[in-house]
Amino acid sequence: MSIPRLLSTPKTLCTTLLLALSLTTGSAALAQSPTVRISGAGSNLESNIRAHLRITSESCTSSMRRLNRLLPQVRRNVERASQALGFYESEIDLAFEAGDDCWILNVDIDPGQRIRVSEVRIDIVGTEPGIFREVINNPPLQRGQPLNHSQYERIKSLLSSMAAENGHFNARFNRSDLAIDLENYTAAVLIEFEPGERFRFGEVRLPELEELSETFLTRFLTFEPSMPYSTEQLVNLRRNLNDSQYFNQVAVTPQLSEAREGEVPVNIELGMRTRRTYTTGIGASTDAGPRVRFSYEDRYINRRGHRLSGDVLVSTQQQEPSLSYVIPLRDPASESLRLSGGFLRQETDSYISNTWRVGGSYRTLFPENWVQNFFTNFQTERSELLSTNETDRIKTTVSGINWSRTRTDDPIYPRRGWRLFGQVSGSYDQLLSDISFLQLSANAKFIESVGPGRVLLRGEIGSSFVSDVEELPISERYFTGGDQSVRGYQWNSLGAPNRDGDVVGGKNLLVGSVEYDINVVGNWNVAAFMDVGNSFNDYGDIRLRRGVGLGVRWMSPIGAIRLDVARAIDKGSYRFHITMGPDL
Predict the structure, then answer these.
(1) Under 8 Å between Cβ of 544 and 481
(2) Bridge-partner residues for 457, per DSSP?
(3) pLDDT of residue 541
(4) 121-to-29, 163, 336 alpha-carbon distances in Å
(5) Hey, do 32-110 and 200-272 end up sharing a CATH topology, with the first three levels equal?
(6) What phi and psi values does residue 10 have, to the nearest 5 degrees?
(7) Residue 453 and residue 447 in contact, taking contact as beta carbons nearer than 8 Å
(8) Which residue from 380, 465, 498, 529 has the highest number of Cβ atoms inside 10 Å of its Cβ?
(9) What's the confidence (pLDDT) of residue 19?
(10) In angstroms, rounded to a whole number, what is the distance separating the alpha carbons of residues 204 and 223?
(11) Is 93 helix (H, G, I), strand (E, B) or coil?
């Protein structure tokens, strides 16, 4: 055999032994490192001393003679580290000693009394404090605090960056002193800052695009020539262009080298996305069963940026073809008009409904990313309650307004975040409607890290103001149960009963849920949950249904895929639930 023959070769055996010895020696050398022992310093001062020391780069083979020659340098490093935190009269003893594998540095320090800030004076010369007021009123280093040089430097850094971000490109410090009084152990911060002239925006150079007109592109601008320069305005413009979905490349660049007479030109470069897209997707949930979606979008049907999109959703319990036409308005980034129409068929254990709908909505974006939506829809509905075989035809013009906002630290797997939605809607029987009613509804979801996992809280409430629930179309009544409401029950199988005990839907809704999930391995989580809720006609006659269960989550690139087993406590039965998508 080859192995015994190899080991029996003297030359090979020597080479192997030398290689092993070399590796062992190399590993031991790598394991050797200097030791620095610091006594008498608190944790912050000790960390700062270690950060300032450069002696640790010295080899373990350095002689004591060489190390002792470096003691003055080490002392200066320790003094700088101490003074940076306000200890200006430290007593320092240093000594090297030999260790088993490497040398040891002993640092014995008595920091002494720490200097405190007696005054912080920041004077802005030649202009109103304006944009610098926040630093002036709340500087990183304040009167009465222990002196910290890095915080003093941060004051200067903030003033400089604020000046540059707001067009004060020639700003300068006429004075920046840190006056130390060792007799009284105090320090005064004395800064005189002269921002100089504030530059303005100059010419905004837009690209010539065949697909979109210059007039339309101009409506994205968040500033005009001659307005005061602001980096924030440039960032907002870049964000608006990116979020518009028209462009796959966006560059907004101030041309500082071309500034003339206090004006800075701005270049905008844009690359267009593909105009037409066709997509298809398949999925599954226990509420809707297997489903297929076909979508078409024309992102810029004309040079005014109008959009056309169509959707067809087909599942065992729901079929919904729809078409929409979007018209960007004065501010395309936050204001649009949508005209839409479509058909919706739903089949549940409680009812079957067929609804034709045509309408429009006006969308605006508020500060703090609140979305406001005014809408009106004319719809005709033919429905059948399966429990009573009662059929109904009704037409309504439902109008209303809703608000929504989502905030999250991660769109796919948030550890912290929330979503809020509220809506007021209704119809009037003298305005293309067979009935009059008013509805108020709201839902919320919160996610928070607790311990090793996350808590997910969900709630939904709704109320209808109408004389009799049977006047409401099936599509406007409240039902619950299913993957996104009370698990353990089939989709929309829960609702207020009639006199015969048959589920017919209710005027009011109340649903709540609490869930805790925890990561177990890789992208896999396990969860435990409890859901409660139902619809009802009177708040004095609420019969809440409860479901509890366990689940498994796989955190896929498109969001969580959830597999839940839930027990309907009031029925004693079990139900399997499958859902997918982001948590918020």
Answers:
(1) no
(2) 446, 514
(3) 85
(4) 54, 18, 49
(5) yes
(6) -60, -40
(7) no
(8) 529
(9) 43
(10) 9
(11) strand
Residue with tokens 């859901």: 531
Phi, psi of 566 (to 5 degrees): -120, 145
* CB 110, CB 40: distance < 8 Å: yes
Annotated domain spans of the chain: 1-30, 32-110, 116-194, 200-272, 348-581
Fill in the amino acid letter for 533. Answer: G
Looking only at the bridges linking them, the beta strands covering 307-315 and 247-254 are unpaired
With residue 78 as reference, give the H or E element that holds it: helix 71-84
CA dist 267 and 85 (Å) reads 45
How far is CA 42 from its chain centroid?
38
Class of domain 32-110 (CATH, top level): alpha beta
CA gap 109, 82 in Å, rounded = 10
Alpha carbon distance 95, 102 (integer Å): 14
Answer whether 273's CB lies under 8 Å from 250's CB. no
The predicted structure's pLDDT at residue 439: 96
pLDDT of residue 503: 86
Alpha-carbon span 266 to 256, nearest angstrom: 9
Architecture of the 116-194 domain? Roll (3.10)
Residue type, 364: T
The residue among 555, 560, 549 whose CA lies nearest residue 516 is 549
- Per CATH, domain 200-272 is 3.10.20.310: yes
Buried b / exposed e over 526-546, threshold 16 CB at 10 Å, is ebebbbbbbbbbeeeeeeebb
Tell me if 249 sits within 8 A of 278, measured CB to CB: no
**Residue 144 amino acid letter:** G
CA distance 240 to 254: 17
C-alpha atoms less than 13 angstroms from C-alpha of 454 in its C-beta half-sphere: 20
CATH architecture of 348-581: Beta Barrel (2.40)
CA 547/CA 529 separation, integer angstroms? 8
C-alpha 159/C-alpha 147 separation (Å) is: 19
Q: What is the dihedral of CA 157, 159, 164, 168, to 10 degrees?
A: -150
Q: How many CB atoms lie within 10 A of CB 180?
A: 15
The segments of the chain whose pLDDT lies below 50 read: 1-30
Q: Which two tokens stand for residue 498?
A: 């009639």
Which pLDDT belongs to residue 309? 96
Position of tokens 């028209």?
Answer: 246
Tell how strand 508-521 and strand 289-298 pair up. unpaired
Query: Which tokens in the block code for residue 136?
Result: 């002036």
